[in-house]
Amino acid sequence: MASAGGQYGRIMELNFPTAEELAAALRAGEVTSVDLTDEAIARIERDDKVINAICVPDFDRARAAAREADQARARGVDRPLLGIPVTVKESYDIAGLPTTWGMPRYRDFVPTADAVQVSRLRDAGAVVLGKTNVPLGLQDLQSFNEIYGTTTNPWNPERTSGGSSGGSAAALAAGFGALSIGSDLGGSLRTPAHFCGVYAHKPTVGLVASRGMVPPDAPAWPVEHDLAVVGPMARTARDLSLLLDVMAGPDPLTYGMAHRVALPPARHERLGDFRVLVLEEHPFIPTGAAVRAGVNRVADALVDGGARVVRHSPLLPDLAEAATLYTNLLCSGSVARFPVDEYEQLRARAAALRPDDQSLDAARWRAMVFSHRDWLEANALRESHRHGWRRFFAEFDAVVCPITPTPAFPHDHDPDLLGRRIDIDGAAYPFFDQLVWAGLATMPGLPSTAIPTGPSPDGLPVGVQLIGPLFEDRTPLRLAELLEEAIGGFRAPR
After folding, report:
1. Per the database record, which ranges form the Amidase domain (predicted)?
2. 143 in the same domain as 284
3. 188 is catalytic
């Protein structure tokens, strides 16, 4: 790029630039948005044949938006993301582009309006390069479907990039834009970040409006869905905060008519002031050696930085009960719109379970036929857990724990999701049991930031999550920044 000189040129020689670095280079006149956009498009056209992260390119409109951003800057306009190339998960509505959720019957569905978060990106000046790949119906920890194919991991194409925001994580790791937005119900922001070596933040439930991030057969109404959130993905912790500030806030059609967001500041600014509980073991599933090592790298950095670190606390809500409760809430919602005949088959399967079967697999089958009374009882127990977390966070500032038990696993396209198995250090476990770590934050709605910790012995990224108090999202985000300084952060695949 002819105009890429000075500090920007030095950044490019070292690694993919962050959004913060790009914004500084743009403001200094060292580069233009057209330059950045053309470079991102060229990289996608060169490298995405193997990765397959960008399933719906929008390059013509991206170049037009970049020209408009440069013209606006020349007039003295400055916005948080002005001229910065970004990507968007396929499940968000973008006017004029298909929204399929990977479901073939909706391959021709094209919305006429942007999702609220796409509008916020545009209002902040971002240049949208296109949409990133997802699994069928967003229902997998991988990203593949019949319409767009399989997204591979930039670190190893034989491995998954994760799901359901796997296309976004892979795009970031490969340098296809500086930022992306995704969603999270079963770890769909955090797991791909962990697998691809990037950062993601699952916001406190209700903090970020999600209108327009709905299945193609559902109306884009301002409805907040149970457990599910939308949130930012980036290559640094500071970029997560930059993008969260753009995304945060209630829907202007509902609470946004009367409320404005004023998140409390981070509890601490120095690593040595944090009080942290470190977890590496779960009663339902073991933690693989590579992830255990990542957790302990973070624990060591915390201790070296002077933080108060403990491994056990009676204040921690019961992990087994929390995992079962999360499974109940997740699965009871997932079958709400099943046809009656399929529902009756599920009832028969649940009725055949032994009463003493307390496995997560049994919990899944039982939850699929929950009555409204059952769901209300589960929701009441969730409120009890939330109260337990309030007591916990009166004494602690964060929890460090795994996101999944292993680094990115080999592609597994077995359509029998409940029959799949995950290999943990040579032993097989039910595929969806690995969701227990993601559910630890999701069930009570807590904020959680995924950070890379370094490579596994075979070179795959390993991440952990930092769970914080309700609506104190800036606390785990600040801790992520400090740990990035202490242990290093994103490194581009070679």
Report:
1. 35-475
2. no
3. yes
